[in-house]
Every structure is written in C-alpha cells, then in structure tokens.
Amino acid sequence: MxxxxxxxEFLGVQMKNPVIAASGTFGFGREYxxxxxxSILGGVSSKGLTLEPSRGNRGIRVxxxxxxxxxxxxxxxxxxxxxxxxxxKNMRRLGCAVIANLGGHxxxxxxxxxxxxxxxxxxxLELNISCPNVKxxxxxxxxxxxxxxxxxxxxxxxxxxxxxVKLTPNAGDIALVARACEEAGADGLSLINxxxxxxxxxxxxxxxxxxxxxxLSGPAVMPIALRMVHQVAKAVSIPVSGLGGxxxxxxxxxxxxxxxxxxxxxxxxxxxxxAMVKIIRGMEEYAVKKGxxxxxxIRGIV
Length: 302
Known about the structure:
- The chain is α/β, with parallel strands linked by helices.
- The chain has a single domain (8-56, 75-193, 218-298), classed as Aldolase class I (TIM Barrel), CATH 3.20.20.
- Helices cover 30% and strands 20% of the residues.
- It is built from 8 helices and 16 strands.
- The chain has helices spanning 80-92, 107-117, 145-156, 174-183, 222-235, 249-257, 267-271, 275-290; strands at residues 8-10, 13-15, 19-21, 43-45, 62-65, 68-71, 97-102, 124-128, 163-166, 188-191, 195-198, 200-201, 206-207, 213-217, 240-243, 262-265.
- The strands form 4 sheets. Strands 3-4-7-8-9-10-15-16 form an 8-stranded parallel beta barrel, surrounded by 7 helices. A 4-stranded antiparallel β-sheet has the order 5-6-14-11, with no helix packed on it. The protein has a two-stranded antiparallel ribbon with strand order 1-2.
- Strand 7, helix 2 and strand 8 (124-128) form a beta-alpha-beta unit.
- Helix 2 (107-117) packs parallel to helix 3, helix 4 (174-183) crosses helix 5 (222-235) and helix 6 packs across helix 8 (275-290).
- The longest helix has 16 residues, at 275-290.
- It is globular.
- The mean pLDDT is 95.
C-alpha cells in the first residue's frame, strides 16, 4: 500500500496515498495503533485544537442517527501548547503526514494558536473556521466570506506551514467562501465539516443536546459533501481535500473524480476501525483494474 499507484503530493507534502484520518475522529493517532499501523495512511489530522485547553460540552455528546451520527463534543482538547510539547512529537512518529487542526473563537485565538504551532514539526495547518466568532454574535467564521477571508489572511500572515482551510457546509454559498479563502492566501481547502442537525428525545420531551443543535456526519451526508466538493473544486485553483460520509473505496474514488486531491475519513472509523485500510486497498485495486499510472489521473474528470 505504499506504491506509486496511490502516491500523492498535497500542498507540497509527499503522501503514500490520498487517505487522511479526519480531525476529531482519530485522536492524535496512537488510539488506533492496536488495530493497524498508522504509517499505512497518507496522513492524520489531529483532534481539533484551541488556544486554551477545553473540556468540551456537557451532557450527551453523541447520538446515533440513520446512516450517521450527531455529535456535540465541543472541541474537547488539551490546548495548543500541550500539543506542541507532547502530541506533535508522537504524531511525527506515526510515519505519515501530520496535520494540526486549529479552531478558535476570535481572530486573536487563531493567530496566537498558529504562532504557537510554528514551533511544531507538522506538515500542514488545517484551519477550522466552523467555530463561532464570539465577537460577532456567535456566527461561524466560515459562514461569511468576509470573515472567512479575514481569519485566513491573518493566520496566513503568521504561519510557517502550508495552510488548509476547513469549510463549513452551513454557509449560504460555499463556493463563494472558498474563493474568498483562496484570495486571502489559503494554500488548500478541506470540506465538508459536519452539517448542522438536531435530535429530540420525545419521551423526555426535550432536545437531546444541551446546545440543542449538533453536527451530523456519516454516510447520510455524503451526497451533500460530494456536491459541495465538486462545486468548490470547479471554483478554485488550489487543491481540495474532500470529506463527508466516506465509507468505502468507491466513495473515496467518487470524491477524487469530483476534484479532490485527497480524502478524509472520519465517522466510518467508529463503525469499523479498519475502514481506512480497506479504502486504501480498494483504491489500489481500482487503479490496477483501470490501468491507471496514478489515482490522481482521474481527479476532476466529472
């Protein structure tokens, strides 16, 4: 699973294959070592980091749905300084590309977090702009092109790492936001983050989550994610990492055909810890069957 059929260059980083463990679903990589060797992967995106440590949301955090799951974790994490001092070194030992996912609730949080991560041996900085901007009434940075461009520009001006901006599907026009991020200096984009959803406990007559709304992921969102990746890949000239409901090699290949250079797998790993290994093998078998020199030969053909 390390041959040239799947080898991928993404944002200047050489990867064994285009399959990345999505942020928030793979911890810092060590959690899955009892199932398989993470060096098999193209890369791992860290648990979402914030400037200060966070305990996350209270109450129920995960709720199963048909063909997916809702989560309201609230970015529970040890903070960027702990990541810099401990987890980054451990992630580098995994033997694949290291991506740090950074969130924030103000421009200052993002900038300071990016500055701290400059001291880390990581390959890519993934900027999670689905976070609410506390200084703008709680609207997520990524739902507004102006705010998305502002945070992208500010972080780009201080980071020494290639910058990948993770887009929210809850924007009115995701292609417009994508172009704004590109113009502001983003080196690449990843999408989609979770889709805003809700669950009600009819017996208790109350919302399941303390925050009422939560993020939907899993196979149910894949058609939405695929459509948005296709739209964004057509709208920008920078590389795209596609994610959202990928469960099989066929799913991953569809995202490549829609224009994604890499794919990220998240919720499927909860159902089957070996999901990414199977996806990599399936993509390799597809490339052999089709006589491809490299899986990127089919990128953007739809």
